[in-house]
Amino acid sequence: MNKNQQPHFFTQIDVAPSTSRPVPNHQPGSMNEVCVLLREMLAAQDRQNELLEELVEQHVAMQRHRVAELASWKNANPELAYFCKKAAERLGRIQTDYLNAITDEIQDNFESIRDSEYMLNDFIDRFGPRFVHLNGILQVLAQLGNAPDMMPPQPNVP
Questions:
Q1: For 31-56, what is each residue's pLDDT tens digit?
Q2: Going by fewer Cβ within 10 Å, which terminus of the chain is more open, N or C?
Q3: Half-sphere exposure (CA, 13 Å, Cβ side) for 2?
Q4: Shortest CA distance to 84 belongs to which of 136, 126, 140, 38?
């Protein structure tokens, strides 16, 4: 190769019409197959929708049954339901104080909790179980005492 000659980066490209690809032959049978498959998919979706509707109906029925059971319990135990409501309100204030203590702990010790597996485990051990149990008790009391028209129990006067 001469010093004055440059390598050929460009080559000649032949741009001739190529032979066209054959268009797939749509036979009447193939369109029927597609229609059959689409109908089967539609039938499967319809069945899936029916099953979902049944599941929703069962869930709603269970919820209605649970609500009826709670209403029956509250009617049979109006005093206890009222006291559950009051206890839930008070326990809610305790939970708020406890949440403040947790957030203060996180604020004060964030770096060490984040950086140390030991400190993270210690934090979870100190606050986790108590918080979970407190929340569970609060939910039960709130559910048992949840009635908008609850009045304080009246003393029995002969």
A1: 888 999 999 999 999 999 999 999 99
A2: C
A3: 3
A4: 140
